[in-house]
Every structure is written in structure tokens, then in C-alpha cells.
Specification:
Layout (H helix, E strand, L loop, with lengths): L2 H5 L5 H28 L5 H28 L9 H6 L12 H26 L4 H39 L1
Bound molecules: fe (iii) ion (2 copies) and magnesium ion (MG).
Length: 170
């Protein structure tokens, strides 16, 4: 970023770059988690859930783009080696070894809740001190909130479906 753009920031820029790089690693892992999960999952409502998870994947990739762009503006270097993704990410990758739809959704749900914490932390850290990063963090936070809501609704609907099937059998 322009020199003055960094000068006006009223926070520890190196710490901010570190937090953003952690977030960047998490976004790539979230992207892959959704992308592979949407392809391998099996079970009720798959045809409805699959395209939504794929959409979430592309939204996570867009978050990675926003975060990397901001790191560069701040004078930092976005993580260049995927081997560092696992080391730096605080939100962990959950290998979807069980492709059942509810298992995949619950893994994604945990990831979203971690992402919500991440962008709350970034929004808090930059509030009133770095308006540009703050705006980016709240924009991404809003999308992570949507993701959490979408997944909770899918899980609710699957449970309703299961209850209805149980009732029919009685
Ligand atoms: Fe994200
Ligand atoms: Fe998300
Ligand atoms: Mg959605």
C-alpha cells in the first residue's frame, strides 16, 4: 500500500498481517472443505444441498482474494506455501472421511463458527483504527453468518424429514 496508507493505521500492522495470514490459510482450507464435501456427500436432500455448498466454496475463495489483497496493501506477503495452511490456520480442516450429508454439514458448521470468531476478532482489532480492514472484516463476517444460518437450516430440515418418516412408520 502507499506509505501514507500504512501510516494512518493506529494499530500493530505486523500483528494485523499475521492475523490476516491466518485467516487466509483458513479460507483456503474452508474452500477445499466445501468443494470436496459437496462432491462426495451422500444422503437426503443432496441435490439441494450440493449446489449451495459449492456456492459457499466459491464465496470462501472470494474471501481469500479479499484477505490476500489487503495483506499486500499493508505491505505484507500472503502465505506462499500451502504447506503452511495447516500450521497457521486456527480453524482446523475436518477431513470428510464419512460422506453422509449430516456429518459433512456438521463439519462445515464447525468451520463457519470458527470463521465467525475469526472475523469478529479482526473487526474488533481494527475497529476505529483501520477502516479499510474493518470494512472488509465485517463484509466477510456477514457472509460467514449467512453460511452458518444456511447450514443450520439444512440440518433442521433433515431432522424434520427424519421425524416425519418416523411418524409415518407408526
Ligand atoms: Fe470465509
Ligand atoms: Fe463461510
Ligand atoms: Mg448460502
Amino acid at each position: 500500500m502507499g506509505k501514507h496508507g500504512v501510516e494512518i493505521l493506529e494499530l500493530d500492522v505486523q500483528k494485523l498481517i499475521r492475523l490476516l495470514n491466518e485467516a487466509l490459510c483458513e479460507e483456503w482450507l474452508a474452500y477445499y472443505q466445501y468443494w470436496i464435501g459437496s462432491r462426495i456427500m451422500e444422503g437426503p436432500m443432496r441435490s439441494e444441498i450440493e449446489p449451495e455448498l459449492l456456492l459457499h466454496a466459491t464465496q470462501e475463495l472470494n474471501h481469500a482474494t479479499l484477505v490476500a489483497t489487503r495483506i499486500i496493501q499493508l505491505g505484507g506477503i500472503p502465505v506462499t506455501n500451502p504447506a503452511d495452511w495447516f500450521k497457521l490456520a486456527k480453524c482446523k480442516y475436518a477431513d470428510p472421511t464419512d460422506p453422509y450429508v449430516e456429518v459433512v454439514l456438521n463439519q462445515n458448521l464447525e468451520g463457519e463458527r470458527c470463521a465467525i470468531q475469526r472475523y469478529k476478532e479482526l473487526a474488533d482489532f481494527t475497529n476505529g483504527k483501520d477502516h479499510a480492514t474493518h470494512q472488509m472484516a465485517t463484509t466477510i463476517l456477514n457472509e460467514e453468518l449467512e453460511h452458518e444460518q444456511d447450514i443450520e437450516e439444512f440440518l433442521t430440515d433433515i431432522n424434520r424429514l427424519k421425524e416425519d418418516i418416523r411418524k409415518f412408520r407408526l
